[in-house]
Amino acid sequence: MDFRDSPVLDATLRLLLPFIVVFSFQLFSYGANSPGGGFQAGVAFGTIVVVLDLVWRRRVYHDRIFAGMELGGLLLLGALLMLGWLETGRPFPDPAAWIGQGLLFSNVLMWLLNLGIFLEVAGSIVLIVRRLMESER
Amino acid sequence: MNGICSRAVTAVLVAGLVLLAIRTAPPEPPHRDHATTEVISLAHRWNIRNLVTAIYLGPRAADTFLEVMVVTLAVIGLRHLGERP
């Protein structure tokens, strides 16, 4: 019996998926004020998708979704980079001018940067591992 | 015989590096230096608590962006490799 045929694994992953997705959102959202950040969130999100692909032997979500996530993250980071160059002549704007309220948006620029990195890394991890799995077949 | 020799040499090298690391390790705990104080003041100015975020999205933001570009290039490269006839 292959490990992928295990009903325990199947049920566990189905139950864990929404929690891990929400946890990855928490990691990038509160990354400026607690351990975490865009990279960690992207890796968590990408990993659960890759594990599901492996266990369920099919692509859980289409490649286009992750390509779209990656493009969105890239565009967001590019826009913030351009904004910084136009404002200050340096990469990215001055974070001191983007201070918000509360713990979630304590600094709006940090939140946006973490979001961009999360989208980019999550999309990339899934696409890279899927391509590598394809090439092995 | 070759395998045993190379393992022995590796073991000696690793042991030597470990001894060197132990001998040169600072006896006192690390203290806050100027750079750490700067990062703490940056984080305070930007209203964030995570000092790691203050570094990789602050003074090293360009490196972060370049790292993101490297990941993107990996995706593009793998895609083109897959499309090769």
Key structural traits:
heterodimer, A: 137 residues, mainly alpha, 4 helices, B: 85 residues, flat
What features would you describe in this structure?
The complex is a heterodimer of chains A (137) and B (85). Chain A is mainly α and 137 residues long. Chain A is built from four helices and no strands. Helices cover 71% and strands 0% of the residues of chain A. In chain A, helix 3 packs antiparallel against helix 4 (108-136). Chain A is elongated. With 85 residues, chain B is mostly helical. Chain B is built from four helices and no strands. The longest helix of chain B has 23 residues, at 2-24. Chain B is flat, with a radius of gyration of 23 Å. The two termini of chain B are 45 Å apart.
Short summary:
Chain A is mainly alpha-helical and 137 residues long. Helices cover 71% and strands 0% of the residues of chain A. The radius of gyration of chain A is 17 Å and the shape is elongated.
